[in-house]
Amino acid sequence: MDKKLTFEEIFEQNERRIHYQIHKMHIHDPHKEFFQEGLVALWNAYETYQPDKGPMATYFNYTIRNRLIDRMRRNNRQHEIQQKAAHEQKTQLTDGNYHCSTDGPRSIAANQSLPLKDASFWKHIQPQLTDKQWKWVDYAIIQEVPYKTIAKQENTTVEAVKSWGRHVKKKLKDPHFRELLSFEGYDV
């Protein structure tokens, strides 16, 4: 049989193969992107098929399936990159300096429960903090300096600066510490 089928004929006979592979792999394809990918794979398989290597149907299935897997991997990789970029942007915007509340994360500067600009409040607790904890309060809370800048200025890492802040927050939440300093009126 020397007569080669046209691609249109191959497509009519094998269109369901693409749909089958998409369904078998549980791919949600509302915009038909994966179907298009499968169609390109079918075309490539049609162009590169060698009859002496095995049955055409097996080659089509193999090519379509692997092309769909490659597309899923590209989509997943792209999604991960976008997630990392969004996380990095959020971290840069908040600089990790946020307070979790029932309304969701809010910048500490927006947290009205802390008397941020009340110098007497901070001077009242300063003796109870270590030097590094006080540096965090002074730079991050009072002066609103970004963590990266604090780390560079203090010749340390951003994680170390965040650790200073965690210790301060832990102290501020401790009922014994609050009682000791007599600032029960503040909701920290």
Automatic annotation (TrEMBL):
Q: Which Pfam families match?
A: Sigma70_r2
Superkingdom: Bacteria
- SUPFAM superfamilies per record: Sigma2 domain of RNA polymerase sigma factors, Sigma3 and sigma4 domains of RNA polymerase sigma factors
Segments forming domain RNA polymerase sigma-70 region: 11-77
Show the segment(s) annotated as Disordered: 78-104
Q: Where is this chain compositionally biased, Basic and acidic residues type?
A: 78-90
Family matches, as InterPro entries: RNA_pol_sigma-70_dom, RNA_pol_sigma70_r2, RNA_pol_sigma_r2, RNA_pol_sigma_r3/r4-like
Q: Where is the signal peptide?
A: none
Segments passing through the bilayer? none
Q: How is this protein named in the record?
A: Sigma-70 family RNA polymerase sigma factor
Give the source species: Lentibacillus salinarum
